[in-house]
Each structure stands twice: as structure tokens, then as C-alpha cells.
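user: At home tonight, take the chain set out below, taking as long as you need, and be ready to discuss the fold:
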Amino acid sequence: MSHTITPGQTYRACAPYPYGPTRIRITAYEPGAATADAADRDSGAPCVVLAADLHASPAHDDGTPRTEGYALTRTLIALAAPQERP
């Protein structure tokens, strides 16, 4: 795992037809744990996700798209300058 998982992060499914939620929000995670508690961003339904399935990017290091797991999404608020954040 090449990134830090923290509560509040939003991830989207990398699979074109996911078996689980399309978008999830991490609700609880203990560093080093094998799983993270999450909630479906659309319905709010709770779910558990393997930490190994949470990726910082929707692409592998060689540039090929991921087809499994979840990729971290970036929000405009996170990219805004501090004085522009609500």
C-alpha cells in the first residue's frame, strides 16, 4: 500500500461493473489493519473493505487501468488553496 488510508476519504470502484458499491467513504480505519469500515456514498449502507483493495490511483505503476478494488478520488476542496477552502 503506497498511500495513507484515513476516515473521510472517498474511493470509486475500478471495475467497470462492480459487485459492491460504486463509491465508498471510509468511516473507520486503524493503521495496519487488514480491513476498513466504509459506507456506500449513494445509499449510506455500511460495508467492510479490504485495505489492500484501496488504491491511491486508478492506474497501475505501468499506466494500465486497474480493474479491481477502489481508487482514491480527489476533490476540488482538497486541491483548493487554504484561503479558498470553506
User: Anything to note?
Assistant: The first strand starts at residue 10 and ends at 13. Residues 76-79 form the longest helix (4 residues).
